[in-house]
């Protein structure tokens, strides 16, 4: 009896080790508590020759990315290249076999019973780990599961990693599992957005919604004569001979078609689809600046839909860039328009829906808003993305009318870059709210729209509930955050959304508890392959990254382009005796330069090279005198201490909140660790040390 009980405990432990991932796996049956599959340098990856070229990306293409990821997380640089062949019957070395044809009996359907191409089965023996996808994307998600198993095994002290033998099946609960980033109010390089796609893919997120046009709201300026001075953007840069070329305010803050194509390809190669949004007829200041005759008089952020040239102009914008997009859907925004113009608004949505559908074959989404019309209604094939109740959409009613819904309810799913007015939104998605903040104390899932009114929620199997997209807005613009600060807000949020939109809440017994999530998330975050948004060095916490006693020649280079917080960066510097020389058109010469930040002695200034914005402490160090400087950083702040003193000098930014008041916020910078000094630097620099962790 005792042996049997021990065996049951062991089987449950092995089973749980498979299920406790992000997102959790639907089912797994252990074949033996004493056998396992070993991931070591003798490993082979084989793609079924029958299906190798199926799909786009192909199964073989996904396998190549998987091969690179596996080497990255294990450090096994000699794993043999991907092979194309038949299923090994009796492999002599550990072999991973990728194929298609998952069994229909595995019930790999969404919670609403609809078929899904994202499901997969996996079978693990001592020498063979088989992943069998419904489609190539299903097989891809199966490789994410395997990678997480490897990461967690290594973190548990088992290296080479071992994976319990047995068999399992997995598939998402909802079709749409995505995150939205407001790139209209904050500029982001496409390389950063690509890294976000790669990171999100590790947690089985399949959609990246880009809110790609907008402006910084300031009511006093907007309604006054200087409305053209407000920051606005349109991020897609057409060629110079395009009829909409004049629409782009800043060419250096827009993406060319080649850049966007590369971004889409990177995301697609990791199972993520980019859904672009151009927000009209409200939030359209950038269009009003270009063609002022299209605006509503007195409200230049709104377009006058009844003006004869307005809709043809918007169609011309979509004509120019629709060929860029590989997604099957696009968003036309369509939120927060004047309710008194409801009929005009509905006419606009329906006309744009018909036009985009007929010219590109793409479906249309809009944000949920209130259209108080008694005579008109939006076409039922338009998907509505719900985001708020007061004055907005009521999703249950819309589903009863036949509309498909995406849940982006702000109570659960909204963030704002760095600061939330009146504390409305958390800094990162609130785990307590997502695990126990729904009616009845149950956890949130995409079918939950209200935290306190059950009548506003629906069942997990509602056929018109497509899934959920969380949103990070950048209402305060470029100077509120650096790009990496945006990642710090998104990192855990993306992972928890992956769990909740894949496994649901109180739906599957395999679903993670909050405590399990909090235990394994830091491990998986640190190991997520294909990108280095943490700007990690590979060294343990507390390690010394470098220590340079005397910098005799400028510039001096290290191997570390950028190092993420927490860190302590210390040095002793003697500023030159006179005004600094000109450097790249600036009156400043950088003391330290990195991928994500530049540091100048003048006013003790950090610069964000993505936006070219500078943040200073407002004082200079004494010329011709050595000053000891320590720069301390976490993901929430950066401060300096001088000559061993206790006083802390924080780098900050002053945000204009809706143009109504200013809010001081701390800034976090990655260490500018790549280049010391520059040609023409006339000072002296000694004892340059970078150590991980805030000392």
UniProtKB/TrEMBL annotation:
E.C. numbers: 3.2.1.52
Domain annotation Beta-hexosaminidase bacterial type N-terminal: ranges: 23-149
Keyword Transferase: no
CDD domains assigned: GH20_DspB_LnbB-like
Position of the signal peptide: 1-20
Record field: catalytic activity: Hydrolysis of terminal non-reducing N-acetyl-D-hexosamine residues in N-acetyl-beta-D-hexosaminides
GO BP term, pick one: carbohydrate metabolic process
Pfam families on file: Glyco_hydro_20, Glyco_hydro_20b
Residues annotated as domain Glycoside hydrolase family 20 catalytic: 175-503
Entry GO MF terms: beta-N-acetylhexosaminidase activity
InterPro entries cross-referenced by the UniProt entry: Beta_hexosaminidase_sua/sub (IPR025705), GH (IPR017853), GH20_Enzymes (IPR052764), Glyco_hydro_20_cat (IPR015883), Hex-like_dom2 (IPR029018), HEX_bac_N (IPR015882)
Root EC class: hydrolase
Gene3D superfamilies listed in its UniProt record: Chitobiase/beta-hexosaminidase domain 2-like (3.30.379.10), Glycosidases (3.20.20.80)
Active site: 336
PANTHER family in the cross-refs: BETA-N-ACETYLHEXOSAMINIDASE, PUTATIVE (AFU_ORTHOLOGUE AFUA_2G00640)-RELATED
Family: Belongs to the glycosyl hydrolase 20 family.
Descriptive protein name: beta-N-acetylhexosaminidase
UniProt source species: Collybiopsis confluens
């Amino acid at each position: 009896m005792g042996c049997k009980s021990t065996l049951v405990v062991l089987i449950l432990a092995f089973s749980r080790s498979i299920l406790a991932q992000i997102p959790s796996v639907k089912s797994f049956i252990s074949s033996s508590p004493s056998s396992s599959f070993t991931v070591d340098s003798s490993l082979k990856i084989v793609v079924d020759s029958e299906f190798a070229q199926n799909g786009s990306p192909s199964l073989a293409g996904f396998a190549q990315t998987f091969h690179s990821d596996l080497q990255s997380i294990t450090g096994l640089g000699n794993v043999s290249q991907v092979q194309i062949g038949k299923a090994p019957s009796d492999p002599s070395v550990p072999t991973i076999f990728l194929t298609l044809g998952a069994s229909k009996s595995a019930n790999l359907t969404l919670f609403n019973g609809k078929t899904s191409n994202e499901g997969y089965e996996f079978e693990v023996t001592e020498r063979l780990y088989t992943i069998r996808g419904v489609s190539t994307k299903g097989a891809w998600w199966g490789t994410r599961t395997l990678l997480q198993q490897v990461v967690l095994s290594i973190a548990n002290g088992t290296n080479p990693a071992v994976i319990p033998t047995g068999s399992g099946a997995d598939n998402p609960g909802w079709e749409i599992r995505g995150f939205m980033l407001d790139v209209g109010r904050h500029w982001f390089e496409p390389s950063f957005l690509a890294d976000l796609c790669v990171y999100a893919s590790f947690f089985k997120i399949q959609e990246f919604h880009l809110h790609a046009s907008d402006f910084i709201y300031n009511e006093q300026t907007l309604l006054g004569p200087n409305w053209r001075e407000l920051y606005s953007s349109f991020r897609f840069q057409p060629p110079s001979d395009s009829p909409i070329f004049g629409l782009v305010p800043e060419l250096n803050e827009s993406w060319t078609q080649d850049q966007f194509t590369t971004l889409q390809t990177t995301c697609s190669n990791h199972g993520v689809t980019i859904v672009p949004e151009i927000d009209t007829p409200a939030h359209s200041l950038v269009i009003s600046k270009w063609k002022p005759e299209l605006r509503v008089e007195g409200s230049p952020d709104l377009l006058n839909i009844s003006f004869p040239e307005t809709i043809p102009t918007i169609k011309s914008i979509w004509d120019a860039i629709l060929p860029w997009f590989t997604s099957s859907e696009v968003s036309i925004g369509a939120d927060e328009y004047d309710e008194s113009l409801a009929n005009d608004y509905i006419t606009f949505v329906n006309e744009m829906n018909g036009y985009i559908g007929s010219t590109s074959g793409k479906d249309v989404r809009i944000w949920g808003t209130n259209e108080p019309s008694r005579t008109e209604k939006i076409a039922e094939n338009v998907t509505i993305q719900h985001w708020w109740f007061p004055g907005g959409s009521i999703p249950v009613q819309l589903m009863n009318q036949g509309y498909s819904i995406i849940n982006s309810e702000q109570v659960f799913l909204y963030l704002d870059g760095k600061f939330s007015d009146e504390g409305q939104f958390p800094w990162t998605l609130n785990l307590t709210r997502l695990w126990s903040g729904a009616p009845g104390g149950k956890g949130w899932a995409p079918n939950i729209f209200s935290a306190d009114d059950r009548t506003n929620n629906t069942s997990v199997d509602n056929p018109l509930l497509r899934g959920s997209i969380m949103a990070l807005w950048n209402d305060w613009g470029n100077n509120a955050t650096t790009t990496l600060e945006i990642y710090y807000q998104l990192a855990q949020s993306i992972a928890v959304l992956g769990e909740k939109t894949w496994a649901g809440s109180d739906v599957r017994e395999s679903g993670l508890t909050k405590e399990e999530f909090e235990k394994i998330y830091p491990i998986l975050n640190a190991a997520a392959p294909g990108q280095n948004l943490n700007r990690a060095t590979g060294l343990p916490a507390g390690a010394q990254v470098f220590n340079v006693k005397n910098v005799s020649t400028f510039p001096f280079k290290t191997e570390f382009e950028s190092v993420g917080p927490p860190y302590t960066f210390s040095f002793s510097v003697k500023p030159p005796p006179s005004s600094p020389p000109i450097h790249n058109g600036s009156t400043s010469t950088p003391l330290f330069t990195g991928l994500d930040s530049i540091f100048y002695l003048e006013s003790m200034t950090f610069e964000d090279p993505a936006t070219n914005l500078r943040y200073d402490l407002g004082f200079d160090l004494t010329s011709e005198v050595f000053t000891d400087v320590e720069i301390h950083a976490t993901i929430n702040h950066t401060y300096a201490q001088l000559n061993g003193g206790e006083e802390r000098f924080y780098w900050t930014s002053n945000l204009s909140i809706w143009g109504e008041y200013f809010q001081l916020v701390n800034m976090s910078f990655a260490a500018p660790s790549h280049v010391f000094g520059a040609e023409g630097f006339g000072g002296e620099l000694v004892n340059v040390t970078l150590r991980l962790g805030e000392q």
